[in-house]
Amino acid sequence: MSEHNTNDSSRREFLKTTSRIAVASALVGATVPRVHAAENNTLNVALIGCGGRGTGAAADAMSVNQGPVKLIAMADVFEDRVASSFANLDKRFGERMDVPEERRFVGFDAYKKAMDCLRPGDIAIFATPLAFRWVNFAYAVQKGLHVFMEKPVTSDGPTSRRMLQLADESVAKNLKVGVGLMSRHSRALEQLYARIQDGEIGDITSMRAYRMTGPIGSAFSTKWPGNPSELLWQLRRFHSFLWASGGAYSDFLIHVIDHCCWMKNAWPVKAQGVGGRHYRHDANGNLYVDQNFDSYAVEYTFEDGATLTVNGRCVPGAANIYSSYAHGTKGSAIVSRAGDCGAPSSTYKGQKPDRDQMLWQSENPRDQGNPYQNEWNDLVDAIRGDKPFNEARRGVEASVVTSLGRKAAHTAQEITYEAMLNAEEEYAPGLDQWTMDSAAPIQADADGLYPIPMPGIKTKTEY
């Protein structure tokens, strides 16, 4: 069995003995000196990446129920995003905000300036496009900061390997790291996980996951208008570019992929898939130039032969199907009823989710129905109580698995997990040296077009 599956088996044995499933996704670190909140009991937070996700994460941080948390610094490449995020947060959390203008930083080096405002044991939030994750994380580990990072965390092999090394360093330093795969903090999915591991539906033989919706975010882009710079425009349209986000597949499907692998208690060893682009023009006839397909169907295979089929679609007017299911030798389960982790989860005697065949249905504990808030409560609880909590390695592994499926569809090849992890192509090399004048990692040709996947033609690389 490959190393990533062996690690997951060890985690399963740990889970059987713990009374708190929220800690289940954490890695157990070595005994090292504590890194904790300062003596005044206030955890200071710096927000790096002030878009919608970052603003939401900062709001969740300041809403925790285990003592005072204060936002003291903000950073982004775009000044308007810092200003907008600050205004929105200040309306809700004025007394928990201490971010004067001199601690609102703009530019590609702004992440350093924001983290320099923190003390060891404080928290840095990373909500930039994923390409910057390894750069931000390296600086946080160096400074002894706890971290919350949004998903996905990588889209290629070299940065994944870099992040795995940083994950090990963060564990060695006893740093607490949360990753924004909030399904793992859904109390409904935690309950289902425990029942599946106890054998309620037998051995999982297959799983199905769907995120089939209309167009989302910045996945589809027409030609660069010439302003701002090509690099800054690509950052504004990050869902359109594999280097910045992993594209529509990675960014939109990682949650259902991750929580299905969690239920299986393993990562798949290989994947094959198909995908394509039905529509290359917007409603006004303008040509799309992004790197995404608008439809994906990927089959993952686990070491024991079980499979996970993932279907994604971003097509206007199509039926919305957004859910996930597990099928075992003794029964089946609805993992997520609607959305990334939509409660209630439930189990059934047979393979059809008929109500008269239901064995069990989840119930959320009082005040724990929001998995986004749960993940922050769990992180801060671990920081204040110095409990094992480090999701960095698992976040990287989930990102590699997601990239594996994406690359399999984009190349029309069967690809192994190990091949994806050890691939040599880095999609944004030299990113740690970028300035406002840097060139974009991919550039439009004379017709304004970018390289796109061509399955069966481009088989070694995605584009």
Chart the SSEs and their pairings.
Blueprint lengths: L2 H15 L25 E6 L3 H10 L7 E8 L2 H15 L10 E3 L3 H6 L7 E4 L6 H11 L2 E4 L7 H16 L4 E3 L7 H11 L6 E10 L16 H7 L5 H4 L1 H18 L5 E7 L18 E7 L5 E8 L6 E8 L3 E5 L9 E3 L9 E4 L9 H15 L6 H20 L3 E2 H5 L42
Helix pairs in contact: 2-3, 5-6, 6-12, 7-10, 10-12
Tally of extended strands? 15
Strands across the major sheet, in which order? 14-13-12-11-7-10-9-8-15
The portion of residues forming beta strands comes to 15-25%
Tally of alpha and pi helices: 13
What is the H-and-E element order? HEHEHEHEHEHEHEHHHEEEEEEEHHEH
What does this structure look like?
The chain is of the alpha/beta class and 463 residues long. Helix content is 33%, strand content 18%. It contains 13 helices and 15 strands. The chain has helices spanning 3-17, 52-61, 79-93, 110-115, 133-143, 157-172, 187-197, 230-236, 242-245, 247-264, 371-385, 392-411, 417-421, and strands at 43-48, 69-76, 104-106, 123-126, 146-149, 177-179, 204-213, 270-276, 295-301, 307-314, 321-328, 332-336, 346-348, 358-361, 415-416. The strands form two sheets. It has a nine-stranded mixed sheet. It is globular, with a radius of gyration of 21 Å. It starts with a helix and ends in a 42-residue tail after the last helix. Mean pLDDT is 92; it is low at 1-38.
What is the compact description of this entry?
By secondary structure, this protein is of the alpha/beta class. A hairpin with a 5-residue loop joins strand 9 and strand 10. Helix 7 packs across helix 10 and helix 10 crosses helix 12.
